[in-house]
Amino acid sequence: MMITINNIYIPGDIWNMIVSHNNVDSRVFGLVSKAFYLTVKSRVGNAMVKQWRQEMVDDWFISNYLTNLINLKVLNLRGCTKITDDGMLCILMLTNIKKLYIRQFYNITDNAIRSLSQLTRLIELHIGMSYKITDIGISYLSLLTNLIKLDIDDCHRVTDGGINCLSVLINIDRLDIERCYLITDDGVNYIAKLTNLTILNLSRCNEITNTGIIYLSALTNLIELNIRKCHKITEDGISYLSALTDLRLDK
Fold first, then answer.
1. CB 127 within 8 A of CB 104
2. How high is the mean pLDDT of the chain?
3. Do residues 71 and 95 make contact, with C-beta atoms less than 8 angstroms apart?
4. I need a labelling partner for 94 at 20 to 30 A (CA). Which of 27, 66, 166, 226 fits?
């Protein structure tokens, strides 16, 4: 028996594994659990699994299958570019989700982030390369007060105003805003309110200057800072971080 979804052919026994994973409570990679991923990879190879994840997983798939995984805690849908705001609305049924990877979701908008803001158990969220997300979408993240790790890199429409909305998330210890080109020193000033930050990626945020670095000197827990390709930051600015003796600087 062969199953066909979006012109992707799947052996029947593997399909049965997909739809029977309704008690998954551990890490999920792509379609279902890591155990499933490793099993399928051994059968058909990593390239085929990647193709399935990118071509087969769409709003219909999420609505009909993923919503059955009510005990799911970690969901990785990275690169599933066919998913839209409708698919994100279905994910709300997965109320136990703690870690969500939806990087490279080119078709989601601020409405999708508004939906996700109801998943209040989230401690880790990756929404990088979601090019339609604006400050409005980022503002909804302020409701996710349990967030510890947040990745919004390559969200090119996000400005200092969006970063200001994140300043209430005091539990965040890792933040990635690489290639958020509109962020300026004002945005860094808002980031400086996240006093639990240990790892911060500002790489390629070209509008940040030495003034922004002065603001970061208040982050006494910071141990890793990436300011590569931030061409307006000079050695004079970096000198303000000298008191952070445990800091690893990537410049």
1. no
2. 84
3. no
4. 166
Domains of the chain: 2-158 (3.80.10.10)
Per residue in 31-66, is it b (16+ CB within 10 Å) or e — as a string? bbbeebbeebbeeeeeeebeebbbebbbbebbeebb
pLDDT for position 48? 54
Closest Cα to residue 210, out of 230, 228, 191?
230
pTM, whole model, 2 decimals? 0.83
Q: What does residue 34 show for φ and ψ, rounded to 5 degrees?
A: -60, -35
Structure tokens at 52: 């399935």
Range from 45-54, 139-148, 151-160, 164-173 carrying the lowest mean pLDDT: 45-54
Q: What is the pLDDT of residue 66?
A: 76
